[in-house]
From TrEMBL:
Subcellular location: Membrane
Transmembrane regions listed in the UniProt entry: 12-31, 43-64, 85-111, 138-160, 172-192, 212-231, 243-270, 301-328, 349-373, 379-396, 416-439
Topology of the protein relative to the lipid bilayer: Multi-pass membrane protein
Entry-linked PANTHER family: TRANSPORTER
InterPro entries: Na/ntran_symport, SNS_sf, YocR/YhdH-like
Coiled coil: none
Keywords linked to the UniProt accession: Membrane, Transmembrane, Transmembrane helix, Transport
The name this protein goes by in its record: Sodium-dependent transporter
Amino acid sequence: MASRGQFSSRLGFILAAAGSAVGLGNIWGFPTKVAENGGAAFIIMYLAMAFLLAYPVLMAELIIGRAKRANMIDALRSISGNVMGTIVGSIGAITVMLILAFYAIVAGWMLSYLVEALLSVINVSVPWLTADSITRNLIFTAAFLVFTCIVVIGGVSAGIERWSVRLMPTLFVLMLLLIVYVSIQPGAIQGWKTLLVPDVSRVLSPSLMLDAMGQAFFSMSLGVGTMLVYGSYVRKQENLPSLGASVALVDIGVAILAGMLIIPAMYVALNNGVEIFNENGSLISGPTLIFSVLPSLFESIGYVGTVIASAFFLLMVIAALTSSISMLEVPVSYMVDAKKFSRNRATQIITFVVFIASLVIVFNFGALFGLVITITTEYSQPLLGLLLCIFAGWIWKRNEILNELKNGNDQAENSWFWKIWPWYVKLLCPLFIGLNFYFSVL
């Protein structure tokens, strides 16, 4: 126990855990879902789902992690007392490695666009950096994984916490500066209207509720053990419900800030002659938005656009890195805890395995890229979230959970959290997640 790492401060944990949750999906996924689902109507439902669904599951991971002081596999095995925990934990570790394999490829694109933007500032043009090629993909995927590896090798306080405390404030500052700049450009006002004016008729739309539920769940990187492992590094005296709420609020805040940046930016692009709608009338989203629409906007601004592009892609790389270090930590923590590898060696081995998986995806991009994303994020993640609710609500002894909560709050038994959360995570969360999974698959 003594050899396990630990976050040295409450702020360090909040920024690291929020960094894990804040990723590329927040910045390109959330804004377009807002625009496509009635603007503020979607935000209202997203806020509701974040606390009705995502927060209870987040708390399940944090409580399990801190109580068991172990990686996902050993923690769930300890709760189940049989092979079931080992199987679920192993699926989680494999899932998070596959997510990191495709995530590193996308983050590599961000890195190459950042380098291209920085070179453009000094009037150097290298078209190869933004042209799709296997060589570029492999070089920048490897570079991104090396950065991730270096941070994780540093350990919990000297690596993950230290870098999160630096990167997350930088991310906030960059977002705020970009929001201010974009907001004063012609066309931005229409983006703000799209963002802030709710289409009231759609608030209770089943498709909107489904999108909001899915976004809330996935934006907090739940189900694959990242929060469970981070929870295992939290000090015993911390009040976990309060800590979890802080993480959820920061993650929600970044998602909303992303909407305040991306949606007005899209309408500024439209004002500058850049097409932002698909043939079916929906807003362009995903990679096309990030690698086509916004670069066209930056180009239309002139020299200032190259500086804005540099800041934007730096923002994207930071968001990617804060997520990737938490993903890599999941299998690394298992290698260190259960297999007694040194952190240095465990991190290098897992990074190499992930790079090999990325390599396979890059060389079979058309067949594997979308498939891996679908299997991991649409199938595996929600099912793992469902199983974590079952572990916390049905398998783990209630008294053990209460005793763990009392470590950070002597009056936990009388708190609103304890009166609501146990039955909520036992009954309602599995139902919500199950319905979301059912409808998203069908």
